[in-house]
Amino acid sequence: MSTQQQEPETQEAPKDPDMKGAQSPQDRRLAEKESGAIDEESEKQAELEGETVHIKVFRYDPEVEGKQEPRFDDFHVPFEKGMTVLDAVMYARDEYDSSLTFRHSCRQAVCGSDAFFVNGKQRLGCKTQISDLEQPVRIEPLPHQEVVKDLVVDMSHFYDQMHAVEPYFQDEDTPDVNDLEEQRQSPENREKIKMSSRCIWCGACMSSCNIAAGDNKYLGPAAINKAYKFAMDDRESEEIKEHRLRILEQEHGVWRCQTQFSCTEVCPKDIPLTEHIQELKREAVKKNLKFW
Amino acid sequence: MSQSYNRGLIEDFGRWKEFKAGMWAWIFHKFTGWMLIGYLFTHIAVLSTSIGAASGDPAMIQAETDVYTTTLQGLEDLFIIRVLEVGLLAVAVFHILNGLRLLMVDLGIGLEAQDKSFYASLILTGVITVASVPTFLSGVGI
């Protein structure tokens, strides 16, 4: 295990007595300690045990004899204020079991590698506060994707779908050299595609979608959202937009969406996925409707 | 990749508690839709068989011995049929209300309130169903 965890900074108790609200049990204990409400015996006990988080982590490894049958492992991780699910599994890996495997990188909800199925919902590990969850915290790999090892799932199908919608800017017209050499976009248009551009490819939406689970060819919310970003971009020509809609209006494109709102519910970046899919449905209909 | 593990369908079904409003709306809509189709065919079967056997003779209708009349009267005398009628109303009303909700969703109106509109259609269905009970269950013994 080469990834060495940085020693987590311990939150210092606020010096200002006004700030000592009952924010966390630790703060409360500190306040009680100061006022001498707890006798020394139990105080020592609390100091020794501290507050722990009970996490149950899905384990599976096809290469290890004892782990070929999937199971849940229990870890009791000391709680820190502001601790996230990712912090908890990282602590479990660094301190208890170095074979615990999961993807993570930036730890600030930008890289999109640590989407887990936490307490029955697809969430980003680094963005989910332990204190918001009911214990024991059950951490599983994303459903509807093949598990490679522990919390690592095979994302290749997801990436294939993302690439299927041609997620890159296409325009024949290069801007005039004498002009500003810029592809300018109006602020209004930028605002329109703003939310769709926030996708971090974490795959939470695809995993939550039960249409995508049953229909392997369905593009899925993330890919359609990606297509939305480019289809709604004014800088691309009308022809290219039509080409994009032709990809989307196929049998396994936008029309597979049955507006269950699961993807919108789980998206860690709050992208209104269903809204974007519905808008593309309307665009596809408008393109094909001719009243003359 | 040498090997991977597919957690399969059983675990998916075990997750029913984790569904959210939109998912429940979808499931209920499917369910009520199939119920209405089932009712439609039963309805056609009952009516067509009794009409086929009915003579349509005004005298027999007057005497209430016409097959069509007696079939329907016989059915309406059954308590279970009355209960099923209430159920049919509930199913139809929910399907209509949720259909309106889906229409709004398709038009892109109020997508942020989709869960509230689902709860609203559930409550409205409940109210209408309860209000219909006296009408449907009057004049029938268990």
Automatic annotation (TrEMBL), chain A:
Transmembrane segments: none
Pathway(s) served: Carbohydrate metabolism; tricarboxylic acid cycle
Keyword Oxidoreductase annotated: yes
Entries under InterPro entries matching the protein: 2Fe-2S_ferredoxin-like_sf, 2Fe-2S_ferredoxin-type, 4Fe4S_Fe-S-bd, Beta-grasp_dom_sf, Helical_ferredxn, SDH/FRD_Iron-Sulfur, Succ_DH/fum_Rdtase_Fe-S, Succ_DH/fum_Rdtase_N
Segments of this protein annotated with the region Disordered: 1-48, 170-189
Cofactors (names): [4Fe-4S] cluster; [3Fe-4S] cluster; [2Fe-2S] cluster
Compositionally biased region (Acidic residues): 170-180
Residues annotated as domain Succinate dehydogenase/fumarate reductase N-terminal: 54-159
Residue ranges with Basic and acidic residues bias: 26-36
GO biological process, one term: tricarboxylic acid cycle
CDD domains per UniProt: fer2
Name of the protein described by the UniProt record: Succinate dehydrogenase subunit B
Source species: Natronobacterium haloterrestre (Halobiforma haloterrestris)
Higher taxonomy: Archaea, Methanobacteriati, Methanobacteriota, Stenosarchaea group, Halobacteria
Automatic annotation (TrEMBL), chain B:
Alphabetic keyword roster: Heme, Iron, Membrane, Metal-binding, Transmembrane, Transmembrane helix
Gene3D superfamilies hit by this protein: Fumarate reductase/succinate dehydrogenase, transmembrane subunit
Name of the featured protein: Succinate dehydrogenase subunit C
Any matching Pfam family: Sdh_cyt
InterPro entries linked: SdhC_prok, SQR/QFR_C/D, Succ_DH_cytb556, SuccDH_FuR_B_TM-su
Any one annotated GO CC term: membrane
A biological process term (GO) from this entry: tricarboxylic acid cycle
Gene Ontology molecular function, alphabetical: electron transfer activity; metal ion binding
Keyword Transmembrane helix: yes
Transmembrane segments: 21-41, 79-97, 118-137
Cellular compartment(s): Membrane
